[in-house]
Amino acid sequence: MAEWNISDRQEYYDYMNPVGTFASELECTVATKLYRMNLSIYRELAGRYELELVFHNRVNVNYETARLLFTGCSENGHYDVLLPDSIPSFYVSQYA
């Protein structure tokens, strides 16, 4: 939980920069907090060419939203940045 005690962008960069440091949903949430952004994380639905919203953290309706695609398993997955044009609304399923 040390990430929550970091309020400076450079300090957080230095904390996350060493080789072997990995990001989870927590680190993604902290980074978007520091950069004043909302966060949406998606997964691709197997064999359907659809994305499912699996995590959303809206900090402020006026902030831009960082959109990430998570692939792999929870222990060693990977996050890719999704650009707005890469997620048409008809391809996105949201959880209730």
TrEMBL record:
It comes from the Eukaryota. Gene3D superfamilies: 3.90.70.80. This is OTU domain-containing protein.
